[in-house]
User: Fold this.
Amino acid sequence: MTGTWIAVLATAAGCYALKLAGLTVPQRILVSRRVRRFAELVPVALLAALSAVQTATNGQAFDIDPARLAGLAAAVVALLLRAPFLVVIVVAAAAAAALRAAGIA
Amino acid sequence: MSADQTDSATSANCEGATAQSDGQAVASPPRQWDNGPRREDRSLRLADGGRTADRPPRPVRDGVGLGLAVGVSGLAFGAAAASSGLTVWQACALSLLAFTGASQFALAGVIAGGGSLLAGTAGAILLGSRNTLYGLRLAEVLQPRGLSRVPVALGVIDETTAITLAQPDPVSARKAFTATFWCLYLTWNLATLGGALGAGRVGSPQALGLDVVAPAAFLALIWPRLKSGRTERLVAAAGAALALATTSVLPVGVPVILAATAALAGALAPAEEPSPGSAT
Assistant:
C-alpha cells in the first residue's frame, strides 16, 4: 500500500512539475515544430495503447473477454453518434454489464 | 486595448478554437490572426458548441458550463480508481494534486492490471507532458508572475486551455481560465470522491461493467484527435499494436510507455499537409 502511495504522489508531483514548467520556462525553448508535434501525439499513442492493453490483456497474458469487447464497441458507436464523454462511458459499461447479466458473455 | 493586445488575443482565439474542435492547440502556428475576422467568427461559434455565431464573449458562463460537464466525469475516474485497487483517499489525492484526467486513469489502469508501479508512474507522467505545451501558450495570455504561477499551474489542462485560448481578449481569457479551473476543479474532486465511494459499495466492478470504463474513457479522450488527421490514426494504431505485441514479453505498464515511440515516429514523419496559416 505504501508503494501505491509513492506512485500516487510521484505521479502528482511529476504532473504538477510539467504544468509549472510550461508557465516558467522561457517561451522560445519549445517552439520547434517537431517537439510540439511529439507532445501532441504522445497522448494519442499512449491512450490508444492503454485502451488496447486494458481491453485485450490481463497481466502479461491475452484475455479476450467478449463483454469487454462489446462494451468498447458500444463506446465506438456512441462516439460515432457524437455522444458526450460521460454518455460514452455509461453506454460502454452498461453494454458490458447487460451482456454479463444476461449470461451471454 | 492596444493593437498589440488585439493581435495576440485574436491569435489566441484562433488557436483556442482549434483546441476546442480537434485538440490541436499546440500544433497551430503562433500567428494566424492576419487570416481576418472569418476565423474569429468560426472560433467563437466552435467555442460555444456551435450554438451562436456572433455573440459577446461569455467567459464565465462558458467556463462554468464546461467545468460542470467535464467535472462530472470524475465519477468515472473515482469508480475506475476504486475498482483498480486504489483507496478512496489515493483516488482523491490524484484528483486534488495531479488534476489531469488521462494521467490519473493511466495510473489506475496499470495498478488494476497488477503492473509495475514505476512503469505506471512513468506512463502517467509522460501523458502529462502535453500540459507543458499548454502552459507555454497560457503563459503568453495569462502572464502569471512569481508565486501566482503556483496555483495557476495546477489548472493547466486540456479544458482550461481550450476555453482560455478561445477568448477574444486577455481580460476575458483570465476570467475564462479562473471560472473553468475552479468549477472543474471542485466538480472533478467531488465527483472523484462520489465515484470512489459509490464503486466500493455497489457489488462487483465486473458486473457493473466498470472494467470497460477506463478503456472507453481513453478512446473517448483521443477520439477528436483520431478524426483530425491520418497521422493521428496511424500513430494510435501503431501504439496499440506495439503495446499488444510486447505485452507477453515486457513487465506490465512498460509496453504502454514503448508506444510513445509511435508518437516519435509520427512527429519525425514529414507533415501530411501544410497547417492553415503556415504561409504567413
Chain A is about 75% helix and 5% strand. Residues 1-28 of chain A form one domain.
